[in-house]
Specification:
By secondary structure, the protein is mainly beta. The chain is about 0% helix and about 50% strand. The protein has two domains: about 180 residues, no CATH class; about 60 residues, no CATH class. The radius of gyration is 18 Å and the shape is globular.
């Protein structure tokens, strides 16, 4: 799919107190692009390592992204980002971005709805979040699921409250030539879970996961998923109270 999808990857470093960075990229069409971002920090508040990313504008030739964290970050950090783009001139356009936006969850909010006209069950939702937490380990407040809950309705959910969090979502619609299958399961305790899936070619298949947790602790939100066989996905972790 090299002629159909391109991926730009890079890392950025953050000084203590930095809350936003504008990063140059090769120009992309935002109608056919989305961003994945991950952060790490050596220690300190949770807000140090929680990031969201967006394009600096919309259109056919946007060459900057904006990466943000929230609150009062009191330590350094490193982010890794991936700008994933579909070639709009390819014989088949692999995917398009249906919608992206940010939603503010107040400290008591656990669920919010967004109206997206024409939303489909097969649309894939990616989520990112940045939090204003001074606590060091409250993963359940910043882990989100996004799904179609009704006609034109996208629901965003988290498993815990108590902290204001900004959630960014990306709704991606893949070409009908690409098969999208969705599965839900719940983990209780530290037992491994095996999920039977429709047979796939493991060399041409990717796993994406959104999840929420009902208790704090990093391990609740640190699962390891892999395709064990062409019909089996395994999920492993070391603690309890996790759902995706």
């Amino acid at each position: 799919m090299s002629n159909y999808i391109t991926v730009q990857e890079a890392r950025t470093t953050w000084a203590s107190g930095d809350v936003s960075k504008t990063v140059s990229i090769e120009a992309v069409n935002t109608d056919y692009s989305f961003i994945i971002v991950k952060g790490t920090a050596p220690n300190g508040n949770q807000s140090n390592a929680d990031f969201t990313a967006k394009f600096n504008g919309t259109g056919a030739s946007i060459d900057e992204i904006i990466i943000e964290r929230y609150g009062s970050p009191n330590n350094t950090a490193t982010t890794q980002y991936f700008v994933v783009s579909a070639n709009a001139d390819a014989p088949i356009i692999a995917f398009e971005t249906i919608a992206t936006d940010e939603v503010v969850f107040g400290s008591i909010d656990t669920s919010k709805n967004e109206t997206i006209t024409g939303l489909l069950d097969t649309d894939v939702v990616f989520t990112q979040s940045r939090c204003n937490a001074s606590l060091t380990d409250n993963r359940e407040r910043t882990l989100f699921q996004g799904y179609r809950s009704g006609a034109d309705t996208l629901t965003l959910e988290r498993g815990g409250s108590g902290t204001e969090v900004i959630c960014r979502y990306w709704v991606i619609r893949f070409s009908s030539d690409i098969t999208v299958a969705k599965y839900d399961f719940t983990m209780t305790g530290s037992n491994d879970i095996d999920v039977t899936v429709t047979s796939v070619d493991v060399t041409r298949t990717a796993l994406f996961v959104n999840y929420e947790a009902s208790a704090n602790g990093l391990a609740q939100g640190s699962p390891y998923l892999q395709l064990e066989t062409d019909t089996n996905v395994s999920s492993k972790r070391e603690t309890t109270n996790w759902q995706h």
